[in-house]
Write a structure and sequence with these properties.
Rossmann fold; seven-stranded parallel sheet; alpha/beta; 2 domains; 392 residues; 15 strands
Length: 392
């Protein structure tokens, strides 16, 4: 079996790179004879040694640019030369979907691994959605949107969630936590994602002082800064200043961190705070659940599904009430929780450790049942085999 994966690869600053890193490694472990090929989105960021079993092909194109004919032709030539029966696209702009027409000419199937945020997603403007051989949606809500809004035949859509390696993410004492010199009952709150309005990072800034004062909690801010994006740089600057003011209670980590470090940081926290209003899946949720952590999370459709559709089961839902940005040609408002709601939720979790423990146990059981990487990777391998053999 052969497959070509076109999308974000280690160490690209893209959530898809993390998903591909764990998924491809597990599939290679389960099926070492499978020949994996890769085309990175940002070749200058590629760390090929992270996936040594993959054969990478570099194409000179700019990320998210308007498609150039040479990109399609070069991929088609590479696929034809290596007799690759399946092209998998993930985190690739919808403007590149017409490559399916060239793939059909050389008898190669196409699979699009697609997150869906809203019915207004610009991807639905594409005219070739129903010509792609198979779609994989990581949430059942997303699968429904592809069918209803995208008018894609249900037989061409498969639900395969993002997953977590429970041998890498698991509850354990960490050297990272020890290095913080924490008191025995001192709680760590983790915020992870991009420093952006859509992630709700700006709403946490005004909360931290009061939480630190009343509970002596530690905030770990794992937040990348988008270069040349004014609001992102502003939010990052504010976190940097606050980390200087409270060096024992605020740790700001804006730089890229290897997966091994993220595994340790997730195991080191007590509460994961995710006030994002814009997610196609939100992998940190299942990473935290695998480590038995309580979660404070925005109540949006994909979060609601991942968390078991029950409040105070794996965590506490925070209702989104304040508009952070308007996207998708001004058709979609992204709302995030208010600072007051975030503070109230964190206080509840900090003052109810027994309930947090129960949430952690529920989350752990849910991850083992639904989001176990070994199981999901096995399903991926079976699906790819079926598609390549023509039985999609």
């Amino acid at each position: 079996m052969k497959s070509l994966w076109w999308g974000a690869m280690p160490n690209e600053q893209d959530g898809g790179a993390v998903i591909n890193y764990y998924l491809l490694k597990m599939m290679n472990y389960l099926e070492p004879n499978h020949q994996f090929y890769g085309i990175p989105k940002v070749p200058s960021m590629l760390e090929a040694s992270a996936l040594p079993f993959m054969q990478f092909h570099i194409i000179d194109y700019k990320r998210d640019e308007i498609p150039d004919k040479h990109v399609f032709e070069e991929i088609s030539a590479f696929v034809s030369k290596n007799s690759i029966p399946l092209l998998v696209m993930f985190h690739i702009p919808w403007e590149y979907f017409p490559i399916v027409n060239l793939m059909k000419g050389i008898k190669t199937k196409t699979l699009v691994h697609q997150t869906v945020h809203w019915d207004t997603d610009v991807m639905f403007q594409s005219k070739v959605l129903d010509t792609i051989d198979m779609w994989v949606a990581p949430t059942q809500w997303g699968m429904e949107r592809l069918s209803i809004t995208g008018k894609i035949p249900r037989k061409n859509i498969t639900y395969l969630p993002h997953a977590v390696d429970i041998e890498k993410f698991y509850p354990h004492n960490t050297s990272f936590r020890e290095s913080l010199n924490l008191a025995p009952n001192q709680k760590v709150i983790l915020l992870t994602g991009r420093c952006s309005l859509t992630k709700g990072f700006h709403k946490v800034i005004s909360v931290m002082r009061a939480i630190i004062k009343d509970y002596n909690s530690v905030f770990i801010i794992r937040g990348s800064i988008c270069p040349n994006v004014a609001k992102s740089e502003e939010i990052g600057y504010l976190y940097h200043i606050m980390a200087q003011q409270f060096p024992k209670n605020i740790i700001f980590l804006p730089d890229w961190l290897p997966p091994e470090m993220i595994e340790e940081i997730m195991a080191s926290c007590d509460i994961l705070c995710q006030p994002s209003g814009h997610e196609g899946f939100d992998v940190p949720l299942i990473e935290a659940m695998a480590c038995k952590k309580a979660i404070a999370v925005t109540n949006i459709p994909n979060h609601y599904e991942i968390m078991g559709k029950r409040n105070r089961y794996c965590g506490v839902f925070m209702e989104p009430s304040e508009v952070a940005e308007v996207i998708n040609n001004d058709q979609q408002e992204i709302k995030v929780p208010s600072s007051e709601v975030i503070e109230e939720t964190l206080r509840f979790l900090l003052e109810n450790p027994e309930e947090c423990e129960a949430m952690g146990e529920n989350g752990y059981a849910r991850v083992k049942r639904h989001y176990n990487l070994a199981k999901v990777a096995t399903n991926w391998l079976e699906l790819m085999s079926d598609i390549s053999e023509g039985d999609s």
